[in-house]
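Known limitations

Structure tokens in this collection are predictions and should be treated as such. Users comparing against experimental data should check residue numbering before alignment. To illustrate the layout, the record for Subtilisin-like protease is reproduced below. The input appears on top and the generated tokens appear beneath it.
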Amino acid sequence: MIHLCTRDSRPLEHVNTQYRKTAMAAHNGSQLKRLILWTLGLLALKNMSAVHSISTSEKQLYIVYMGSNKIPHALGITAETHSDLLSSVLGSAATGKTALVHSYIHGLNGFSAMLSASEAAQLSEMPGVVSTFPSVSCSLQTTRTWDYMGVNLDGESWTSTNFGKDVIVATIDTGVWPEHESFDDEGMDPIPEKWKGECETGQSFPEFYCNRKLIGARYFSEGYEAIWGQINTSDPTVSLSPRDTEGHGTHTITTLGGSRTTNVSFQGTGLAVGTARGGASNARVAAYKVCWPGSCQTADILAAFDMAIHDGVDVISISLGASAIDYFYDSIAIGAFHATDKGILVVAAGGNSGPSKATVSNGAPWILTAAASSIDREFLSDIHLGNNVTYSGPSLNTEKIDPNVYPLVDAGNIPAQNITSTDARMCGPDSLDAKKVKGNIVVCVPGDMLGINYPEVEVYDKGGVATIMVDDELKSYAQVFRHPAVTVVSQGVGSHILSYINSTRSPVATMTLSLQYLGIPAPIAAKFSSRGPNVISPDVLKPDLIAPGVSILAGWSPAASPSEDPSDIRTFQYNFLSGTSMSTPHIAGVAALLKAEHPDWSPAAIKSALMTTATPLDSKHNQNSHGDLTWGSGHIDPKGAIDPGLVYNTTSGDYKLFLCSMNYTDSQIRVVTGTDTAHVTCPKARVSASSLNYPTIAASNFTNTITVVRTVTNVGAPTATYRAEIDNPAGVRVRVSPDVLNFTPDTEVLSYTATLEPMDTQPWLKNWVFGALIWDDGRHRVRTAIAVGPTVDSPFF
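Generated tokens:
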């Protein structure tokens, strides 16, 4: 099973720099040729495992999975077992040692090794081996946001949490820039004794870079190097250490748990002025670097999960995504299951493949899956045309734009020699006639090439003043540009501008600097945010929550390009990014606050508290967004989550029965859970996946009446009475029994049944419909979202 992982920040066009460099360098001809070269490079990455599987004798990186670690205090014996197992298949101890890449010996049991398909097949039959599967190649997917979410520095609600003091939060990402001011540990107590991790040294990363704030940093490159060869340590853009040279990891970890830093703004522009901090600003942070130029190998990701479990982290934030695959092939799902089983909450990015439905990734029910929304702030530049019409578009310009009037030209009318008008309009490298660009504002329509080529760079290099880019696909947020530019996020507006140019003898325009606007209607689901339903298990509503993920300012690596343009060598301390990568650490940060407030709560309890107190998005500002398939339970409400009243305390046993409901075989269930078959007893009669004790209720293929059971635990006042309120989905009648729950000091856990009955009208046959069950005790409103939809093979799925 082959899949491609993505780093979930910015839309998916914004993939790794290495391939962008390749695509930009290979522009000997038309834009079409460059697009073909780019596509071939991406397909080479995507199909690496497929290429290797052609021959049974050709070596590739395999994960040999042996389930849970039964002997955690005998690590040497476990690692020795891996070596012995390899040697028995490969013929000698020396060969086995050479082939071994990772030993997973902490939270799970297994190893990764360079093997042929036949060797992997032979190993899969060995005693103690649950399965073997290829390691696949993955590439990677603030001020105001925390105030916007109600996590105020002086808020009484957060006094008891002490902003996550001594909770240990971790990211699995591109590493960390340790010198960043967000890791200031002044005034912090000694590192908690439960911490078992370390600060790994490496290229330009001595041990003393860790402190009482950044308490741990590790890097995992063995899987990457086994596939791609030894990392070039002479390349200044790469560091064989936990150091982040891409920016993404520093951005996510400072959003999650960065210390408070005052008087921050975006590169001295006066935009986004304020105090930058992570949600759990007093938490300890640890970085696990798994991503390298062009790839994050799942063998390395699994190793990071294994070590994070060993090290003693409380919350893991992973902003990496993958195309939806069965959980027994999904290394992130497997690693997350073992982490959850050890009491660690895992929050993962849902992906940036929206607005299409059925695109959400990281959909395993034991993962908290994040979607992305806007906040009440945006950054716009105005375009004033010579006909007195003004348009605005998202932009983050750091260079001053002269307020003069300039000629306005359509890039399609000024192609370079041997370039077609269509290709010129994309404004790729060397596509425009420099003589006709100089001194003008140029309108480009880059289409799918945006993110591979940089139109504003081509315009600026040819002497242009500024660039207007027309793009209605995914760029409905402000991007950081190397040179003055603005994105017009509507083809209608773009058509009007082009029409003005082509119908006027001397078209002119001016462009303003980027301005900050507050009080914008929010939250609005980001167009790029991936939607449900959950392809692998559609009876589990995904994503789970939506949180800020648009134009998020956070810490940045000075070694990384702030605009993701390889030619942009400016150094930034803070930068804006958009994507579900950004919403993930926001949710993880709130989870860390809940862990500080309720240290005895399980990952499921924390997850439930976040979901049942979330607020559904306003449909007025989120039309055609697919509703709960976009935001799950709703927008995160940190204050409400601290005191949720009731929680759905899903257990590992519940998850195992859920896997039974998916008709997984005993061996497939063992792959995910790491347990022996004897520990999983699947009912003879298949149960519905809808019966999982989850904080939402979802039913696909809804044709007949169904009844599900839910169990809730009282975490509020010892004595409480909750009454059921029902918001019926269109065409569905929901009945709850009992409709009153009476909790006493001796009765903390109660169950109820919810029966969903189809009515005469059946709108769910053509689309998903949504409702909710709310338990109200006069103080708490515990909301369980309900989603009902068509069959999986329906065109409306």
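For this record: The first strand starts at residue 5 and ends at 7. The first helix runs from residue 17 to 25. Please report discrepancies through the issue tracker.
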